[in-house]
Design goal:
Layout: H1 2-11, H2 30-36, E1 52-53, E2 65-69, E3 74-80, E4 85-88, E5 93-96, E6 100-105, H3 109-118, E7 125-130, E8 139-143, E9 150-155, H4 156-159, E10 162-164, E11 169-173, E12 177-183, H5 187-192, E13 198-204, E14 207-212, E15 216-221, E16 226-229, E17 234-237, E18 242-247, H6 251-256, E19 262-267, E20 270-275, H7 279-289
Antiparallel strand pairs: 1-15, 2-3, 3-8, 4-7, 4-11, 5-8, 6-7, 9-14, 10-13, 10-17, 11-14, 12-13, 15-20, 16-19, 17-20, 18-19
Length: about 300
């Protein structure tokens, strides 16, 4: 019996198990494969219109500021060394470390009146300065916009004379900067382009920070190139860009499509910044949601 059993085992070896299913490549359903693919190739930022989706440049290790938070509402954290100061709009401070002293002034009556009456900003400025008690310390300050917004840093060494929309200013590093005003060329532009009679300009060689709601896009206009934007969407533009107005169309466009009588026309050369949810547009949306109207294309840009 034992011999017979051995023969059977020799003659009929145990069958091998089928290959493991885990070794076989898994195939995703076609529908899931298609839905999983990105809509645009990775790293692409330029749109078909020539606009670019603005993204902040990577911060250097020794940078004096850092922008953190979600796209809905961001935080600007600034590192202050001895005697350094940051100037900000009132109500923008989130926190400050122990070695930071607070102060306020108008920066002179002329500057205060320009900001309040012409630039749509507060007459007073908030100063946050390293108090010097510990000269070797690095103090921290955090600022936030007054409404849900992104923070856009602008280097005035590259964009001296930048024209920005009313209410867009958040803060500036150092002391070598100033806000000035520039009169528009025509009354039509003053009343219908969303900038008022005076346009706000920034001068100096420091770093300034602007509030921008929603998605921020930029476009480099060639000499003579024109673009029409909604006055609520204009954030800032270089001093080489010319601003004017263009008729939006007939009565149906004005009264029924909520575009108003005129839109803003920009002519190059120069860089233009636009944003999708300015403070004025947000107020209109909230007013409409609360049943307070809010329709139409009224009010200033930011």
């Amino acid at each position: 019996l034992k011999t017979s059993t051995c023969r059977l085992l020799i003659e009929f070896p145990v069958a091998r198990s089928p290959p493991s299913m885990s070794r076989m490549p898994e195939l995703s359903p076609p529908m899931m494969q298609d839905m999983g693919r990105p809509l645009v190739r990775e790293g692409a930022r330029e749109l078909m219109s020539g606009f670019n989706i603005w993204q902040p440049a990577p911060q250097a290790q020794d940078s004096l500021f850092q922008i953190v938070g979600s796209d809905f509402s961001q935080v600007l954290e600034i590192h202050l060394r001895a005697s350094e100061v940051v100037t900000a709009e009132p109500r923008s401070m989130l926190f400050a470390s122990d070695g930071v002293s607070l102060g306020a002034d108008m920066g002179g009556l002329d500057q205060g009146c320009k900001r309040c009456c012409c630039a749509g900003e507060s007459m007073f400025r908030l100063h946050l300065q390293h108090d010097g008690r510990n000269p070797n310390s690095v103090e921290k300050v955090a600022l936030t916009p007054a409404f849900p917004a992104k923070i856009v840093p602008v280097d005035l060494r590259q964009y001296d004379g930048l024209i920005f929309n009313r209410g867009a200013f958040l803060a500036a590093l150092g002391r070598d900067w100033r806000v000035d005003v520039k009169m528009v060329r025509s009354l039509g532009t003053a009343f219908c382009a969303g900038q008022g009679l005076f346009m706000n300009t920034l001068h100096g060689d420091g770093m300034v920070f602007l509030n921008a709601g929603g998605t921020v896009m930029t476009k480099q206009l060639a000499p003579g190139e024109k673009i029409v934007v909604d006055k609520h969407g204009l954030l800032a533009f270089e001093r080489t860009v010319t601003i004017s107005i263009r008729s939006s169309g007939g009565c149906m466009v004005c009264c029924c499509a909520a575009q108003g009588l005129f839109n803003t026309e920009l002519t190059g050369p120069g860089l233009v910044w636009v944003h999708t949810m300015s403070l004025g547009k947000l107020r209109q949306a909230l007013g409409a949601a609360a049943g307070g109207g809010g329709g139409g294309n009224q009010g200033g840009g930011s």
